[in-house]
Amino acid sequence: MSLPDRDKPLLNELSGYRVVESPYRTEEGKNVSLIPEGAQKLSVPEFNRLALEGRIAGGKDGIILAEDGNQNVLVGQIVTRIWPAATGDASVDKQRFERVEVPFTLEFQGDRVKQLLGPDTKFKRESGSWGGILLNLLPIVLILVILFFMFRAQSGGARGAMSFGKSRARLISPDKNKVTFKDVAGISEAKEEVWELVEFLRNPEKFRDLGATIPRGVLMVGAPGTGKTLLARAIAGESNASFYSISGSDFVEMFVGVGASRVRDMFEQAKRTAPSLIFIDEIDAVGRQRGYGMGGGNDEREQTLNALLVEMDGFENNSNVIVIAATNRADILDPALLRPGRFDRQVVVNLPDVRGREQILQVHARKVKMAPGVSFERIARGTSGFSGAQLANLVNEAALLAARKGLKEITEAELEEARDKVSWGRERRSLAINERGRRITAVHEAGHAICLLKTPHSEPLHRVTIVPRGGALGMTMWLPSDDKMHQLRSEMLDQLVVAMGGRCAEQIVFGDVTSGATGDIKSATNLARRMVCEFGMSEKLGLIEYGEHQGEVYIARDLGTRSRNYSESTAELIDSEVRFLVDSAYERAMAILTENRDKLDILTEALMEFETLEGSQVMDILEYGEMKNPPARVTPPPMPSEVEEQPGKDDSGQNEKKEAEETRADGAEERKMEEELEQAERDPFSYNPVDEFGKDGGEKK
């Protein structure tokens, strides 16, 4: 017996098994889906035909169709018959057949199904297991988790990429900031100015009873390294108010509108924790003058500045928020930022005087092991013009020198050596210079030293050396006896004479000159031009400023406006006066060195022998013709070997070969030096001096 043709499409997926169990179960025995494998999808007409034929399977409880909760479908079975495999007995095979239930699915139509199958038809609503649901949702959950952590990483912290509109001001914790006003020295007046802020925050009633109001803003102005940021850190450590710190460059970035948004957010944070202080370091990065942008390139910066102006003193009152700013270019700040009501007070932080430098050295000496008996006053007098940062670096360099020498304490000698290193650079004894170069350098420096001691208004001589230091082959050093607020014309003229001393000595001794005076000529020309154009020290030009120097340049403001304000004839007269000052100084230097030619030769030989002479030793030569206390011969420190010997490795043969090569090289070098010395005595200028000195071989002042 064969199946009807209409049943064949329904059974084309059933080859290989007899009864299909529904619903389908996984290996774990949990429902994943009510739709079994191989289920036939019936259309509505096909279902109607099978229902009318009574071929929809039902149990003892009647026809029950499962309603899949995951999909809008009904799941059931179709009853059909199929012949089993033949047994070989025709009578048996003719009578046998098996009942087969074929699964199907149908789009859910509850009312129509009941009309076809009868009112006793039941629907059993079932759904897949929670494991299946979670398995389906797992990719979505993973994507959401990854996105969450990406946004959290990008927006986390003050510098997150997704927090462009948020302020980057950092709240300074009093526990982490240990700087107090005891750590600030050398700027007493500036400390008094800002101490009022701390007093107002601690005891505001003291000022309010008198009707006084605290300044809205304080602008600290001074050269780099004078202690402006250190003073702000001291305010943060002393005040009980919230202290926010931010740099001027933290406002403006690549996105438009970010700067203004950050300014507003910063003041909102400060208001929430009022009373509070906001410190803006290097405010010139955002507070430059408006209206000088070319092509609209500064619009974003101007918007940021406008927001800052409004927040500091706009329609709303921010009296409980005090702004402190620091800059070394107050000349380029916008005038609206400097008016009272925004920055009511400008505190000038100057370079420390001799007493302030002594106090600063004592503050930094507390952090290192200093030997007893060190005279900080003597070191302070020899560091005129040093800022607080340079003095801190000096003490640190002295500590490094003491550690290199294996000392347990820092002595005054290390402090003086560190001062020379910070001022003029480190000695370069490894630089190979032949005898001719050393002799020319010795003559050059001897000329400077003699002119320095023979001019009445020059500074005291400190040291003369022909050991290369920094970028110079030799150096004549002097130290001011005290801090000078004014400089006399006679002192400037003597400086010109000292600058010309090296070139004059070369001309007198060798009858020729070298390129070693390049730096001297440049410094002398600059000083002479300032005397003529700025200081009014020319008799022919009088007391007129000729616009050569109008302060520091701000390109956006000064572009195209710094034309000279004098005629061509006046320019020729300026050049003539500058030449007159320099030529007069050259003639004076020639006269001094010609008169002291014997001292020049003695000092040259002493420098060739000892390389470095102190000021007192040079004075002995000029006064007595010899040194009363000659220095000890300098032994260069041993240079560390480039390749360390490996212990246990037998390299005796290589060592012997290396020693033989070094012996031959030393002998050749000695013969070469003797030949050069003999040639130098016959003709000192038989070589190209530019090869020896280069462009930077001159004096470093």
From TrEMBL:
Give the enzyme class: hydrolase
**Can you tell me which residues bind ATP?**
G222, A223, P224, G225, T226, G227, K228, T229
Which stretches are tagged as biased composition: Basic and acidic residues? 646-684, 692-701
Where is this chain's protein located in or outside the cell?
Cell membrane; Membrane
* One Pfam family named in its UniProt record: Peptidase_M41
**MF annotations from Gene Ontology:** ATP binding; ATP hydrolysis activity; ATP-dependent peptidase activity; metalloendopeptidase activity; zinc ion binding
| One Gene Ontology term from the biological process aspect of the record | protein catabolic process
User: How many cofactors are bound and how?
Assistant: Binds 1 zinc ion per subunit.
Q: Any idea which residues are catalytic in this one?
A: E445
- State any GO CC term: plasma membrane
InterPro entries on file? AAA+_ATPase (IPR003593), AAA_lid_3 (IPR041569), ATPase_AAA_core (IPR003959), ATPase_AAA_CS (IPR003960), FtsH (IPR005936), P-loop_NTPase (IPR027417), Peptidase_M41 (IPR000642), Peptidase_M41-like (IPR037219)
Bilayer-crossing regions? 130-151
Binding locations of Zn(2+): H444, H448, D520
Keywords on record: ATP-binding, Cell membrane, Hydrolase, Membrane, Metal-binding, Metalloprotease, Nucleotide-binding, Protease, Transmembrane, Transmembrane helix, Zinc
Repressor keyword on record:
no
What's this chain's function?
Answer: Acts as a processive, ATP-dependent zinc metallopeptidase for both cytoplasmic and membrane proteins. Plays a role in the quality control of integral membrane proteins.
Family, per the entry? In the central section; belongs to the AAA ATPase family. Belongs to the AAA ATPase family.
User: What name has this protein been given in UniProt?
Assistant: ATP-dependent zinc metalloprotease FtsH
User: What is the gene name?
Assistant: ftsH
